[in-house]
Every structure is written in structure tokens, then in C-alpha cells.
Records
---
Amino acid sequence: MRYTTFGRSGLRVSQAFLGTMTFGEDWGWGASPEECRKMLTAYAEAGGNVIDTANKYTEGSSERIIGELLGADRDRFVVSTKYTVSMDGNDPNASGNHRKNLTHSLEQSLRRLNTDYIDLLWVHIWDQDTPIEETMRALDDMVRAGKVLYLGISDAPAWVVSRANTLAELRGWTSFVGVQLSYSLIQRDIERELLPMADALDLSVAAWAPLARGILSGKFTRTDATTGSRINRDAVTEQGMEIARQVDIVADDLGITSAQVALAWIQAHHPWVHPILGARTLDQLTDNLAAFELELPEDAVRRLDQVSQIELGFPQDFIEMSRDFVYGPALTRFDRRKRSQW
């Protein structure tokens, strides 16, 4: 597996991150500690170095298992976790992005992970009731205290991320270096605003659900079995099924698995987008890891692009449509210094 720097930082991260929402059996569908050990070992042997978890994953078991498994090798990994989500639904201050919840959540995560610092701390989701100034200043305090090294934000609008980093740069606070977003052939919505923002601000992207919760693995298209699935077959749209069938066709043509095709497609377009691999078994993870040794043929990439294409909507569509009117005949003699990747 290859490495690159994360956002504007000098932190070296692997192409794929290991997602650990499946670490622990508290939610009824996760992996046992022994299976988690096997997956972590396989990921490390493949060159992976980023472990992605959250305080809420399997009610804290994910962080505890990671802390136990890393042991003396902790410093060889980039440990990332998240705060925001409540661990006590009866306490109104046990959730959100305010200073009190950040302080408490971080201390609890440090204990469960058995470490004295977090490499990458994510804001788990945008909290509309906490001023972004409070969040950024509180996060900066944690960095200055040495409890956190880098910051990211997950599941937030582009304007929120942009405003947060602008405020941080203006006031000398620590900025976000990455965003964590849902991205796959079935869900390409972030190409409208969030991916262009990330590109413009030099933010790396951690992509969760790159297999669309298993739909792109052939789970529904190659067999009728849905036992153990966290999604209902009836919830999958016909367009989603058609995209999945096209992924299957490409996979069969190339002699690889559907999951490998879906993951390789992300890398074909955006090498600074890091798929989060959320497997429940060693076999699933091993199959996923093989995708990072592949390069899809251009015709396969175009085929998948076309079947999964989305409308960018206003204002992007209008801006593109108006280019001749706005810039006139001189447009044909103008070369952009930087071309968009989507």
C-alpha cells in the first residue's frame, strides 16, 4: 500500500483506512476480539497505518479493543477517533460539539484506547446548536495541550467546514486537515460542493461506506441471501441495483471481485480520497485490501462513471452552461491552470 500526506499536514497516511465500527459484538453484528486481531494484523501487513474509530462505536468496545490490540505498537499507527455522539442519552450535555462534551469525550476515549494522545480527532457530525468558533477554539486547546495532534470533521456542509477553517486561520487556531464523508458509486453527492471544497482547501477525504453498505460487493446482485445485512433489500433503489449490476459486469470481465472494482474506482479519480474499509471478517478485509494493487482500465472507469452519473444542480450546471456567454470567443484560447477532477 502506498502513502501520502494528509491534507496540508506532514502526516503520512496509507491509501486505505481501517474502519472499526465492526470491532465488538455489542450491536449484534460485529466481530469478536480474536477476529479483530486478525483483521488488524492483515491490515498492518498490507501497509495500512490508519485506524478509524469513534467513542460511540459498539458502545465504546471498539476503542477498548483497539487499545488492547495495539499495545507496544501504538506509536506505529495513526489512531483516529471521534466525539459528538452521546454516550448517555439522558444527559443533554453528553452530546454535541461544545467544549464540555469535547473535554469529557476525549478523556474517556484516551482511557479506552490506553493512550495519552490521539493522532487525528474528528468532529463526528455538525452540531447546529454550538457556534463553530467555540468548537474550533476548544479543539485548538486540546492540540496545544498535546492530547490531539491533528483535526478533522465528518458529515458537515461545505460552508461549515470552509467557515471553520477560515476562522481558524484568521485567529491562529488549528485548522481541519481532513473531512470524513460518505462516498461511493451509489452516493456521489459530495461531488457537488464538498469534493471541490476539499480540493480547494487542500483537505484529504476519508470516505465511509465506499461499498454502499455492501450493495457494491455483490451482496444483493449475485445472491438472494441477505442474512446478517444491516440494510433491507427493499431500501435499495433500482438505480442503485443497476449500478451494482454494472460493477458486477466489470468485475467479471476483469476476473476480480465487485468490491475490488468499487474501491478501485474511487482511487482512479481521487488518490487523495481514502476509503475506510469496514469489514466484519478477515476474508472480507483481505478481499478489500487487494483493490489497492489494481488499476482499472479507462473504459471500465468511463462505464462506471456513466451509469452512476449525478446532476450537479444549481449553480454548477448553470455556471458551466453559461461559459460561452460569460467569457466569449476568447474562451477557446484559454487554458485553466488547474482542472477539476469531477
---
Amino acid sequence: MLSSGTDFVQYHTRQLSRIYPAGRRTDSSNYNPQDMWSVGCQIDSSLEMDLNDGLFAQNAGCGYVLKPAFMRDGNTQFSPEKPEERPGYTPMRLSIQVISGQQLPKVNQKEGSIVDPLVRVEIYGVPQDQAKEETSHINNNGFNPVWNETLNFVIHTPELALVRFEVEDYDKASRNDFMGQFTLPFTSIQAGYRHIHLLSKDGTAIPPSSLFVNISISELTRRSQI
């Protein structure tokens, strides 16, 4: 009987498992695959394709991603709930300066429609890494909005974390509208000035829509954690 996260991790050092939704659901309701990946499950039937595509983007979508060494060791004591207890634990600080956007897509295709864009950055990973921060919205400018706002995160298990950029059209009276997104593994992020090329809901490119960001990654020292 597998009763803890560590038990699942140890089981998956030698076994494959496939995770299904509860019961026999055949509808389109989704669940987050990240929790299952964090305990070493290799195959996940979730339809949350942003995370799925983001994870496998690091190997050009060939269908196989090698788990980190601490999840392949048969004697591992790694627990997603207690990442600080594993050998070699090194939390990372991720700072993302969201500078500007370029030719963001319209939500309403009617002539004269204008968007009020904001950027949300979400971290998916072990429980302590789940986080999200967002910029303010820019009124009536989807062509070249400028934010110059910095979003900060602490990543406790970088090897399992995914970073998702999402752009939304702000609406004070109802739910914001999705405009575009891009998801990639934390380990694939490169520091410095970067353009994030946005994808649509179905994962296709929407050129020339992009975000311009400046990314900083550093180890989190004991002093900075206090």
C-alpha cells in the first residue's frame, strides 16, 4: 500500500504507472498533472495541455523526459511535501521583470475593440512551489503595452517546476479573458532579456504576439531566506 509521497517516489524508480481521473469520467473535465509528476508518475491522462506541452517542449515533444536523479534512486527519501529534506536541496530565486508586450491578440475581433492586458506568471511544482503573481493592467493598449514590473518567486524543487506566462484582457465587471500563454520547465529558462512568444488556447503560435522580459535566477542563500 502506497500511503505517502515518498512511497510513490520510491515505487516509480522501478515501475511505470498511468493516472486516470476518478471513476470512469469521459467528459472534458481536467485535473492538474503536476501533483502526479511530483511523485514520479510517468504517464498522465490529464488534458491540461498547457502544462503537458510545456513539460515536453524541452525535448521537442519526443514523448520522454528523464526524471531527475533524486527520483530515480531506489533508496530515495524525497517527499514533495518536504523538499528541504532531500540531499543537495538548493532553493532558487526567480525574478521576472515584465517589461512590455508586442502586438497582443484581440479578444473581440470587432473593429475598434481594444484590450486592457495584464500578465500573470504561475509556478507549478511541489506544493511549496505553487505560486502566482501578476502585473497591473494597461488600459486600451494591446499594441505595445509597457509594465516594467518585477515578479519574484522562490523555487524549492527547480527540477520539477514549470513556469507559465499568461496574458489576459482585464475586465473589472466579469472574469478576465484569455489572450495567450507560454509554459516551459524552470530548468529550460535562460537568464537575461528574452522574448516570450505567445500561444493560443489550442497551443498554436499567434505571431507576432510576444512579451519582452528580463529574467534573473540565483541561489537563495540562508541570509536571504530570513
---
Amino acid sequence: MNRLELFNQNKSLLFAIAYRMLGSVTDAEDVMQEAWIRWQRSESSVQCPKAYLSSTVTRLCIDHLRSARVQREYYIGTWLPEPLRTETLAAPQNCPELAESVSFAFLVLLECLSPTERAVFLLHEVFDYNYDEIAQTIGKSLSNCRQIVCRARQHLSLRRPTVSQANYAQDTLIEQFLTCWNQGDVQGLIALMAEDVTFWADGGGKVVAAQKPLHGCCKVARFLVAIRRSQLTPNIAPQLGEINGQFGIINILEQKSHSIFSFYFSGDRIQAIFAVVNPDKLRAFQLQT
């Protein structure tokens, strides 16, 4: 097998690692391009191409996250991950761990981890790498890697809300949400949301969006209805779609994707709504609408 064939053989895995690490399709593709360049320049005697490539991608992602954290200090408003269409996912549908790890809420949750914690946690907990492989990848001892995974689990458990219901129940809730939203039914929306629901919006300073999270079902419901009645988006057309492995809403305006709504659930209520409005993060959707 030549180098291109070996790279393509591992391409799905490399993208899966890079996207979960970075929360950005664009950045993940850039990292893969750099990994391809390094792979071409590498020695022909590489014993295990998969290990070499995944290690290269992981290290590139760690470096990128360290610089991205500085950039996000100057980001206008809330930073949210870049949405990904379900059909482009590398994760097999019969693997719950991979499916959950690409959900929007999980990617947001990972933001509480440092770049190294994120890498070690994902490689071990999601991609089933053993500690020997991880230690070689990030240049740390076995005991240190074990400690990092333990620390990451603790950080995530403190922030992870109550486990949500099965997908079919979530899908029904989102369908009901869309119906109430279309009808401007404030009370109907309130009934679907947890009392302490949070609405997060990412406009990146490029379009009008709430720069601070909104808390509370009454405030969020009224805000959502106000969006539908706004003169800025009089012809917005919401439609259901699969986003990051889960049901969500794609809002179309003038035949273009205006925003993406992703959801997180607690029991039988909507616990969080993530609205990506930044046009730079909707490019992949513009090509398919």
C-alpha cells in the first residue's frame, strides 16, 4: 500500500479524533492536511501507520487548542462548537460511546478540560487506546496518563447533568418544541423546558445574537418567540434535521442556513439549547441546503 492509500485507510479515525478534540470541522480538516504533509515527509520505515498518524493528529490538536484558548479570550460572546451533519460522522451507529462523544452537549462539556486532559480522556474513554499507546502519543508516563483520565472524569462528572432519556423521547420533545415555536406558544415552550433551562448563542460578533447565556424557562421561551416575531428574520423557516448524531433544528432564511439549534435533555425536559448563528460555522450546511 502506498502512502496515500494508508492515509485514506485511517482518514475516518483521524477526523473523528480531530473533530472531538477541536469542536470544529474546519480546524479538524486543517489538522488532517498538516498530518498528511508530515506523513509524506516521514521515514518509509514507520512500523505502524495508524499509531503514527493518530499520534501526529493528537499532538497537532493539542498545540492548536493551546493557541485557540488565547484566541477565544477575545471571542465576542459565547464560543460553541461547529455543528456537524450526522451523515458525515465517522462513528458507527452501533457504538454508543462514539455516538455520545460527538453530541453537541458533550463537546461543550469537554471545554472544561485542558488540551492534554481532553486528548488523554478521548483516546482512552472514546477510542479505546490503552495507556501504553497514549503515553507514547503525548510523551507522559503511564501513571500520569491514568491520573489525567481520573481527573478528567471527575471534572466532567461535576458538570454533567442528569442522564437524558432515549432518543425517541428526545425526538418527540423537539417536534413538540418546533410546533410550539412555530405557533408562538410561550406556555407550550415553558412546559417542554426545565425550570433552569439555559439558552446559549454563538454569533461570533458577526451577526445579531445574545452575547450572554439566558437562564430560566420563562425568559428563554419569551426570547424564542420574540425571535420568530422579529422584523430581522420575518421569513425564517425552521426544519428538523440530524446534527451531531441527534435531532435538532436547522433554521433557513432566504434559502440559506441562518442558525442551528442543538438540544440537551434532563429527564423529560429540555435542559439546554445551543444556537450557532456564526456564519463561519455554518458553511458545511450552506452547501447542502
